[in-house]
Records
---
Amino acid sequence: MTYKELTIADVLNDPLIRQVMRADQVSLSGMTNLLQDAAHRLNSVKTLRGKAEIGLPGGVNAIVASAAGNETWWPHQLCGR
C-alpha cells in the first residue's frame, strides 16, 4: 500500500482534523501558521543536513541547533491559543 503525503491544504480541509481543531479551539489561521512554520523548519534542517554531509565543520547537531535558534519551541505558540 502506498501513502500520499498530505499538503497543508489537504490537512486544513480534512473533516476529522477540522473537528479536532474545533474541539481544541484552534483557529484556521493558527493551524495554517503552525503547519507553515513546521514545514519551513523541516526544510531548513533538511537543507542544513545536506550541507553537513558535504563536510561543513561542527557536524549535523551543531547545524540543527543553530537552525532551531537554541530555543524551545512549542506548537501551541502558533495556534492562537
---
Amino acid sequence: MPDYNPFGKPLSEVGPEDLYSMKIPEGYYFEYKRDFIDQKAVAKAISSFANTYGGLFFIGIEENEETNKPGDWFTLTSGDPQSYNEKIRSSVKENISPSPMYETHSFKGTNSSGDEGYVILVDVPESTQTPHINNDGRVYRRTGEGSDPYKVTSSPEVLDDLYRRRDEWQTRIDDFCNLDVGLTVGQSGEGQNQGWPFLELYAIPSTLDDPVCANVISELDRFQEIFESSEIHLLPDDSEIVQEGGRVRFGFTADSYRATSEGVVAQLWTAEDHQGNIDTAHTPLTFTFLVDGGLKIFLPIPTLSPPENPTLVWRSIDQAIHSQFDHIEFLDGLRLLGYIHTLLNSYLNLLSEYEWPTESGTINLRARFRNTYRTLLVFETDWYIDLIERYGAPVCYDEILDLPRLESMNYELDIDESNKFGSITVGTMNLFQAFGLPIDQSNNVFGEFSSYVIDQMFQETEFED
C-alpha cells in the first residue's frame, strides 16, 4: 500500500503551518476543493480514492489554476468542523455502497483575505472491500488529477482487480471467524454426547489487522474497569435522570484477565457441577478484544429446566410439544439477551475509550450457534405464551446456525454514540430470529429488558455531586 502522506509525520500531528508549506499539485493522491461541494461530488472523490490506492482530499484549499498547486488555504469560512464532518459522513453513507473507510482532520487558520477559516482533510486509505459503487451506478477511479468512472470496454482487468481485493477481504473475514478456544468432549458434543449449546460471536471491524487499539494491551486495569462497569446508553442525554447525573452501569466481574500479543481477554466461569460449585474444568465464557478493534466471544448458552409447579408459560410449552420435555433442551432467552447486551455494550465502550475511528469505520457481526439440535428459546412472559399459541413452539433442529446465512447480508453494528442501545437491540434480534423469534417481537423482548434496566437505575443509581 503506497505512502501518500507528504508531511513526514502522522496526520494527527500535522498543524496549520504544515498546510501552508505544502506545494504538491493536485493529482493521483491529492485533490483540493475551495468550498464544500455537493454530497455526490464528495462521494465521488472519496470512492475514487478508495477504489484506487488511497489519497488525501482537502476541502478548504483553493488550487492555483496554472500550477494545480495550493493557492490559498482555510477558505471554509462558514460553519464549523463538526458540521462539515457530518456532511461528509452523510455523503458517504447515502451515496456509496459499501461505505469505505476514511478519517477526517480539521485545521483552523487564516486565508489570503485575512479571514479565519478551516481546512478539512479527508484521509482515504486503499480499500479492501472494493468495488465501492456510487448511487449513480458507477465505479470511480483516480486518473491523473480527477475521478473518472470506470469503463468496462477499455479496461476489463480493473474490475477483476477490484473484485479480487474483495475476495481477499472475504477470506480474511472467514479466517477471523474461527473459534480460538479448546473445548471438552462434553462441551463439543463429540462421540455420543449432545454437547452444550454455545454461541460464537464475532465483531469484524473495517480496521481488521490494523492495530488501531494497540494501547489496550498495556492498560489491563482500564480494560478490566470498562468490562466490569460499562455505562448503559439507554436514556436520552436530555432526560431528567441523566441531566441530574444519574448513571446505570452493567458488567461482569470476570474470574481472570490477561493481555496477549493480539489483544486482551476476560474469562468468566458460568457452569456449575452437580453440587452447585463453579465448574472450572470446562471452557468459560471468553471475551477477547483485539488490537484492531475486533471482538471474539465464546458464550455457553444458559439453559432452563421446567419447574415442578408449571407456570402458564410452561403449560403452553407442554401443550405445544406434546409433553415431550425429555427430548428438548430449553434455552433461557432473557439471560442470553442479558449476556449478549452486556458484552456488546462493554465492547462499544471499549471502542470509544481507545478512539477507534467511529466516524468512518464499520463493524459487522457474525455468529455461529453450535449444538442447537432440538433446542427451544424460551421467554417466561405473557407475550411468549401468545407467540406459542399462535405459531406453535419454534423448536430448532439445526445442529449449527451460521448467521448471516448469506455473504451478501451484513449485520452492521451501528456505532453512533447516541444509539448504542438501539444498535445492540437490532443486532441481538437478528441473532434471535435464527431460533424462530419473529422480528416483530423485538418491542416485547427489549421492552422487558429496558424495564429491567430502568428498575435497576432507580434502585441503584448513583448521582454525581
